Predict the 3D structure of the following.
Amino acid sequence: MGRDKLKRKLQFKPLCKSFGSLSCKSEDIIHLLHEEMEALYLMDNQGLYQAEAATQMEVSRTTFARIIKNAREKVSMMLITGANLVIEDEKDEYTVMLTSKKEQVLELGKPDAAFLMLYRIHENEIVDKQVLENPVFVENKRPGQVLPTLCNEHKVNFFIATNIGTGFKSALLAKGVYTVSKRTFNENDLMQWDILSS
């Protein structure tokens, strides 16, 4: 009888969960486990070494090596055979960072707004909220210089502001952070996945 698999620590929240060829139709489906997606994110997107990535996922290096090998095999099989790929999403928790003109109440602003509001959502409920001074505003720096690193430190999955430039958007995406541009936004919108993923 095999032992139960230890729970992996997963940071990455897949936005798109199914992929397929545009030029050929296939009935075959390859299932990429969330832990395999996490391994690809940590090594191939974040550029971590196996030992660092294993520590982040709270698994042994040997286990991580097996996970990343399986993930890469599945992605290459999708590309070689034209099969469809579906990512299994086990993460019921995500973190959202919003820019705000005010400290006490959310009033969405541009990336250089005075405050950053950090919300942790678990099973469609706000479980933690923090307000940070925005280093872009305080230190008069460009958003792309400081906010991608700050998002990475706080394990942010979504960044929301009224206006997000192309370069800044790319810098955030390189850190695995999805961007959402909205004119207005309130706390109730945070629990609506379709608003965040649109």
Notes: The beta strands are 18-19, 29-32, 84-87, 93-100, 115-122, 125-133, 158-161, 178-181. Residues 93-196 form a domain with the Nucleotidyltransferase; domain 5 fold (CATH 3.30.420.130). The longest strand covers residues 125-133.
